[in-house]
Known about the structure:
This protein is α/β, with parallel strands linked by helices.
Amino acid sequence: MSFKAGYVNIFGNPNAGKSTLLNAMLGEQLAIVTPKAQTTRTRMLGILNEPGVQLIFSDTPGIIEPKYALQKTMMNTIKEALEDADIALYLAVPGEREPNNKNLFNQIVQLKVPLIIGINKIDTISQELALTEYQYWKTSVPGAEVWLLSALHGFNVIELKNRLVELLPEHPPYFDTDQLTDKSERFIVSEIIREKILLHYKEEIPYAVEVYVEEFKEEEQIIRIRAVIVTERDTQKSIIIGKGGKALKKTGTEARLSLENFFRKKIFLKLYVKVDPDWRRDEKKVKKYGYR
């Protein structure tokens, strides 16, 4: 029997629900999800393996007009995803009429691959408005299939997955058929810690933070992890730690519980906080933390 495999690259403005859809397709909490814009900073592959099929979902950062070095690398990952897409899936939300970056949007809709416009979060609007949204996108991008979705509640997720399988080209698997993602365990750890920071800290704090793992040591009964939270200023470091270390302890506890759920193993997590001034705006520092 022939095998089908290919890249389904997911694009959209910030907070369109790209990571939520990725997780729904995989049936795993792989990508971090928060209500804050620009939660996703880099490209992550989620690999769905079924008999005779390998769907490679590519989660990308929300499309913006970049203002500093980190955001420029985020937009570069979107350009990379334009090059290897077998299917392009653009997620919109109700009421969206203007792309944040017209140039990137035009590149997406002009790709010579099947294009799907997914109108996500339709559980937040009436059926009448959903029909209006459908008609708007069908008229605006006539070459695209338009789908109404709720990634959060699973509406049309399985049906869309089945359609994506139909559109996949015949190709041998790109990855081992038991592989879930292209990212390392250390990356998963750093993202889960950053998710907790995004959820519990306000204003600029979460966006000024980077997380990296200094040690990941897996033993038979436990995984021992030492991770560093990087901030841009001493005042941010103080806020991350909190009075008497309470804020950092809360972040660490919640991260540990999520890590234990993901790895299905006991976790010992030690967190440290350090300052690296204006790292987001310095191209060399951005590269040092693994962003291309």
